[in-house]
Amino acid sequence: MSIRTTFASATALTTILLAGACASALPAGAPTIDATGSPTAFNAPHQAEVTAEQESVERVTEGNLVMENIPPIPEAVKERLRQYQNVRTHGFADWSDDGILVATRFGEVSQIHSVTGPMMARRQVTFYSEPIGGAAMNPLGGSFAFTKDTGGDEFYQGYLFDLATGDVTQFTEPGTRNGSFVWADSGDMAVWYQAKDGDPDYDIMAGNPAEPSSVRVIHEGEGALFPVDISADGTKVVVQQYISIQKSRIFVLDLETGAFTEINPDQDLAYNGALFLNDGALLTSTDKDSEFKNLVRLDPETGAMSSYTDSISWDVEGFDLSPDGETVVFTVNEGGPGTIKLLDLETGAISKGPQMPAGIATGVNFNAAGDRVGFSFVGATSPADAYSFDVETLEVTRWTEAEIGGLDTSEFVEPEFFDYPNADGMDIPAFIYRPHGEGPHPVIVSIHGGPESQSRPYFSSTYQYWANELGASIVVPNVRGSAGYGKTYVSLDNGLNRKKSVEDIGALLDWIGTQPDLDSDRVLVYGGSYGGYMVLASMVDYNDRIAGGIDIVGISDFRTFLENTKGYRRDLRRAEYGDERDPEIAAFFEEISPLRNADAITKPLFIIQGANDPRVPASEAEQILAAVRENGGEAWFLLAMDEGHGFRKKSNRDFQSEAETLFLKKVLGVE
Length: 671
Prior knowledge:
Elements: H1 10-19, H2 52-55, E1 59-62, E2 65-68, H3 75-85, E3 87-88, E4 91-96, E5 99-105, E6 110-115, E7 123-124, E8 132-137, E9 143-148, E10 157-162, E11 168-170, E12 176-183, E13 190-196, E14 203-207, E15 216-219, E16 224-230, E17 236-244, E18 247-254, E19 260-263, E20 271-276, E21 282-286, E22 294-298, E23 305-307, E24 315-321, E25 327-333, E26 338-344, E27 350-352, E28 360-366, E29 372-378, E30 385-390, E31 396-398, E32 403-404, E33 416-421, E34 427-433, E35 441-447, H4 461-469, E36 473-477, H5 487-490, H6 498-513, E37 518-528, H7 530-541, E38 548-552, H8 558-564, H9 567-577, H10 583-592, E39 605-610, H11 619-630, E40 635-640, H12 650-668
Parallel strand pairs: 35-36, 35-37, 37-38, 38-39, 39-40
Antiparallel strand pairs: 1-2, 2-40, 3-32, 4-5, 5-6, 6-7, 8-9, 9-10, 10-11, 12-13, 13-14, 14-15, 16-17, 17-18, 18-19, 20-21, 21-22, 22-23, 24-25, 25-26, 26-27, 28-29, 29-30, 30-31, 33-34, 34-36
């Protein structure tokens, strides 16, 4: 078995880190998780004509921030936000030679730090102006690999950090996008994927990160390919092709012959990673014969599967195999909370993992000796920290303690889980943060992105600020199309059913109207990425019932989005949203486009965007801004020139939260 990097779980780690930041660019649960541009290069052929009224709105540039209509931030607002903005979390990255590596922010962005013992001082290891996307120790020790992009462009480069000398070696090709790095047990080879702008086909690369000249293409790919493990003898690589959240394919690449063999080519299944077992079989997570992803043993020769976890009616998310190949540690997403379990491969027995408070455990990772497992843990009222547990005794060790800016944690609000009915007779899962005191309280509906993401009870200092300082209730729905509730549920918004998820917001507004402690006349919708589309679509369809909206890096027109998103990801998004080249789909996109229905948006709208966003290009923000303004609507606008799909730099996030606060106070009528 190979010792893998934590890059496969970098999205979860990034989500945890951002969820603790007051002005996290996207709502909690949004993928930071899974390509430069500039305002002068925006391709927005359907942008509304600029009117005299628009020309009267001044566009102001302050440093890397470009803004319109945002008033000066009062010192009182900055001061009250300060504590919430300075919550500092920790994410477990990997075991190191003398302790663990964690990702945490000390300054502008998240960097890698070393912790040599439980609750000991962290020592910063990397020092960059851009956030580090993950870290993975060389199996032989002495160095670790990490990724970094520029200005949020997501063209990640791979680097090797020598812990003895501090030297850093870039081993990937500039101008390409790289990820899913996997170490071989020998420590002298890693494999990863490489994508190029405009090319939907990913190549599989291999080489010694310490010797960049050794890097070579070992398989010219077709589609989005991701290596996930290397056999113990270093001769085979298991590769996953991602097609959509509901379909993927598993291949074995023979490094000696070059053979690229698909397992079960005639079956439509969703897989989530794979590991080589001692006998050459694979351990993977798949939804075969189940609504949920189960851990299964997969025979690469015959394709036969046997399930280990079909008694668990939830998704198995992350998993790792002990160095001796006998024990599996895995996490289960139990409708939001995430628990840890252990599997004995010989007997098939499943046992409970360590006892933890209610919350979410992610990134489980055996140490080299196989006697301890490291992981990150976050609760709804406790920021993320790094932990480990003893496999034999299940004793938990806490390695870090998050800083909470001096806030009184006893005042933090616990979310309540509930279901609400929609027009089709379904129960939609959601949770709500109710502020202290009697209502009726204004309401912020926070909608996740993806669209196949899931809102989960991560700690969010944003939500705590809104509840404790603005007196707002925060309602967080998992509308149709959300992950975590089975493969049928996640498919309910596909293709021509896109507006079903928006209808679930309408049903939520109905539910809010039945709650005596909620003010249905003061409801604001908030969301990022696909959640930004949901904000815009909700403001089109329910304009008379919504007081305003905050759209962060949101899609304003699916056709222009698909035409302008980066080419390496365009086919992946077509699999979810539909192909804009199909006349029926094109007509449907026209019908549901917020851009083409912008005249229905008459309530205040705040649009927030990163200039270098490779996913939802900044043209999506510019064109909806122009359309709303053309129709006489009120729009605030914030563009960060050094950010991509959401804000990752603390100073930018701080200003975002300050501006959002002014907007919320104005729209919701709070002091």
